[in-house]
Design brief:
The protein is mainly α and 107 residues long. It has one domain. Helix content is 74%, strand content 0%. The protein is built from six helices and no strands. α3 packs across α4. The longest helix has 20 residues. It is globular, with a radius of gyration of 13 Å. It starts with a helix and ends in a 12-residue tail after the last helix.
């Protein structure tokens, strides 16, 4: 699957939900669920939003890091999703250490 196709697919919340559950990474899923809760989102909604944010806001160095992770991975799609989610969680934590609903957003 091409990166552009992956991005388009993951911007659909239903597809994103199915994908994040299928990753099989319980630790990452738990971290994403916690981050998503801070924004009153489901993990799938959080992944969908993260993909959109990465596509529009990631710096050139972050794109290069993403491509490098994908090139070294046995499963490039899985590597891309994990990288984007970790990027988004780090950015959200830096931008909003405490959300209006009282969530500390610490993952």
């Amino acid at each position: 699957m091409h990166l552009g196709t992956l991005f388009v697919r993951l911007q659909n919340e239903r597809d994103a939900s199915e994908t994040i559950e299928a990753l099989g990474d319980l630790r990452l899923f738990t971290e994403v669920a916690s981050a998503a809760e801070c924004f009153a989102e489901s993990p799938g909604e959080y992944l969908a939003a993260s993909v959109g944010q990465f596509a529009s806001a990631a710096a050139d160095e972050e794109w290069l890091a993403l491509v490098a992770k994908m090139e070294r991975a046995d499963d490039p799609g899985r590597a891309a999703i994990a990288y984007i989610l970790r990027w988004a969680m780090a950015r959200d934590l830096a931008d909003a250490p405490s959300s209006p609903n009282g969530c500390s957003c610490t993952t």
